Amino acid sequence: MVAERPEVGSEDTEWLPIFEPAEVAAFTDLAASAEAESTPDPAGAGLPSGELFPEGAAGWAWMPTRALGRAILLSSVLLVSAALTGRYDLVVLAIPFALGTAISLARRPSKVPEVEVAAIDPRFPEGGQVTAAVCVANHDRVRLDLVVVRMTMGRWVRLRFGDRPYAATVARRAIAEIPLRGRAVRWGRHALGPTVVHGVASDGLLISDSLIAPELWLKVYPVIEPFEADEAMPRAAGHVGSHRSRRPGEGGELAGVRPFAPGDRLRRIDWRVSLRSRQLHVVATLSDRDAEVALLLDVLHDAGRSGGIDGESSVLDTTVRAAAGIAEHYLQRGDRVSMLGNGLPARMVRAASGRRQYLVILEWLMEVIPTGASPVDAVFKPQLISPNALVIVLTPLIDLRSARMIAALARGGRFVVAVDTLGDEVPDRGSGKWADAANRLWRLERANVVGQLREHGVPVVAWGGAGSLDQVLRVVTRMASSPKAVGR
To answer: Torsion angle of alpha carbons 205, 206, 207, 209, nearest 10°?
Structure first.
């Protein structure tokens, strides 16, 4: 057996080893037999009074075990045999069983314990350590001989001992804490529980009904993909920030020299030009403003198989982690970031800046799931995105609806950058003599979709982490600053 001695809340608390599979089966059989053999009678027939089996809150009831049945049966058989045969030595054999059973039942519990699953901090990134504990509080005046705790957990929560049960003896008026150690290997909300607790008292003669504690939800944030972008934004239209805009104002980018006007600062006077022209001139600059970045996540479908933080990444994993990295980068620079999804139900985070916005985005990303919205569902409206925002669409480009949505945004005058989260190294799928032809045909169709998007003025770039968007941002900035032909 594997022994575990965690921290406890009382010196009288005695910890037992964690059960092996054979012992688990034995205890499960004990609990099942107790429930099957001692179904309570509504009228109380066939059972002792309610004082012997007190019923507590949350549906807890103490029921006899097979050990109690064997003790009563053996004592009764010995006493009846002594009466029928006249052998009073059998009475001497029956007295220890009867007295032991009576003494044990006299120390029966009258209160139910309290069970709670708590965590020091239920929020941590992928691969972080789970620091939770199951707390069992015994407020009764008698000790519990055994408390067995077993819980279920989510697919991506890996505890040290898995789903094997934990066992402990809890002293009277004491609190026992069972620490849970493990890792959460994928982003999202994962349940730790529900937790099922069984108690054994009176020297194993009584076993409790199941007490179920509610689950504890763990919030696992996605690991941030490293991302940096040094290029300027195509259009900065905020109030104050670090991006050069095309509007005159206070900034560090030179826009020209103009005559002095009331309200100009003296430190802006260009004395060389003023001496040559014999009239005061000042240096005009372009204002520095913040920009708005709209991250649009294509969550219609997922592709690939996720292996968590230690394995392969699916398309949804890449999309979520890349979105978290891009949002963190621009929020640290003081820009406003919004986030939208094109699935059902329609979800979005309004544009804002600061650390609070970053935490809101992380909470939003934990709820992302593939939606597979119907083609007739118009769940995304371009009007939700500001016309001055830089739209970064994270998409695997495996659905024509996503391509049509990107093209519609480009035709609406938005500055759109498509980030391919599927990548170029797509493994072939399927088997058979037509598998190679089908894979080539699918690749050609996808390349055709990418070419059509580029014809609409939408640059498409594969996600590659830091610096992967610098080239396309440079192109988009150049397009934004170039003059546009307007029909008369």
So the answer is: 160
Residue with token string 């059902």:
344
DSSP H or E stretch at residue 461: strand 460-462
Is 469 in contact with 230 (CB distance < 8 Å)?
no
Closest to 9 (Cα-Cα) out of 180, 131, 207, 168? 168
Give the start-end residues of each E strand in 325-368. 336-341, 348-352
398 three-state secondary structure = coil
* Token pair belonging to 274: 């003023």
Quick check: helix, strand or coil at residue 310?
helix
CA 247 – CA 284 distance, rounded (Å) = 10
Token look-up 């029966």 returns 108
CA 451 to each of CA 109, 301, 389: distance values in angstroms, whole numbers, following the listed order: 75, 21, 24
Residues in CB range of 89: below 8 A, 6 or more apart = 82
String of DSSP letters for 267-314: GGB-HHHHHHHTS-EEEEEEEEE--EEEEEE--S---S---GGGS---
What are the chain's domains?
14-38+52-221 (2.60.40.10), 247-289 (no CATH), 292-481 (3.40.50.410)
Residues in a beta bridge with 199: 147
pLDDT in the model for residue 44? 34
Show the beta-strand stretches assigned E in 154-187: 157-159, 166-170, 174-184
| Most confidently predicted of 22-36, 149-163, 423-437 | 149-163
* Dihedral sign (CA 428, 434, 436, 442): negative
Q: How far apart are CA 195 and CA 214, in angstroms?
A: 7
Contacts of 113 (CB under 8 A, 6+ apart): 136, 137, 138, 139, 140, 144, 147, 170, 197, 199, 211
| 411 touches 403 (CB < 8 A) | no
Q: CA-CA distance, 226 to 96, in Å (whole number)?
A: 73
> Could you report the per-residue pLDDT of 320-362, keeping only the tens digit for each?
998 998 898 888 888 889 999 887 777 889 988 889 999 999 9
Give the Cα separation of 242 and 236 in Å (integer): 9
Instruction: Tell me which residue of 151, 204, 145, 209 sits closest to 182, measured CA to CA.
Output: 151
Q: What is the pTM of this model?
A: 0.70
Task: Look up residue 194 and give its two tokens.
Answer: 């529900």
Mean predicted confidence (pLDDT) in 21-50 = 40
Distances (CA, A) of 369 to 48, 137, 138, 347, 469: 54, 38, 42, 11, 25
What is the structure's pLDDT at 217?
92
Is the pLDDT score of 123 beyond 80? yes
- 290/187 Cα distance (integer angstroms): 30
Residue 185 has pLDDT above 60, yes or no: yes
